[in-house]
Amino acid sequence: MFRKLRELLLKHIQGNVVIYFIVILFFVVGISSGAFTVKALSDQHKGELISYMQNFFQVLNQSTFDAFSVLKQSLVNNLQTGILTWILGVTIIGIPLILLIIVIRGFIIGFTVGFLIEQMGIKGFLFCVFAILPQNLFIIPGIIIIAVIAVSFSVMLIKSKLNKNYQVDMVRQFVLYSTIVAAVFLVILLGSFIEAYITPIFMRFISQYM
């Protein structure tokens, strides 16, 4: 079973290698933009963010952590992104907006990581490794895969409109498209569980040394 899944995944990547390159490129652009934005912040804004982070670490160490609330919020945020991307995939004009979503997700990560490392050095790097990386090992690939599939489906729609000789069963393709997106959501769900129930353990430990 796992061998078949691996073969299907490799076939999918090979068939969409150009789209993967474009989506990942936009994600990297978002990360770079977020990191450079940190450099452009005024000292006042940096001071406000540092104060917010210090308060966050204090609350994290003193209060009881509501993992279920974190899980709900993570699911809402990530499912909104995934569902919006899925909807945009069935529109002809959805491709630019899908890429914009990818840029924004990259920007958020780039800004957060860039700020933590700039202000806290090795401590900030360790916090990123243990508090940001674990869940995003599942969430970000999931969102990228959904974006690639959505762009691919949108391209197929454009071809069918422009080329009358391009024959495809749209209903069957839509069902397949939606099924794959739903399966990828399970990967994102795993990332949300990690963010809610595993990452906080690391965050509490690391925050003691921040």
UniProtKB/TrEMBL annotation:
It comes from the Bacteria. Keywords: Membrane, Transmembrane, Transmembrane helix. The keyword Transmembrane applies. The chain crosses the membrane at residues 12-36, 83-104, 111-132, 138-158, 174-194. Pfam families: SpoIIM. NCBIfam families: spo_II_M. This is Stage II sporulation protein M. It comes from Geosporobacter subterraneus DSM 17957.
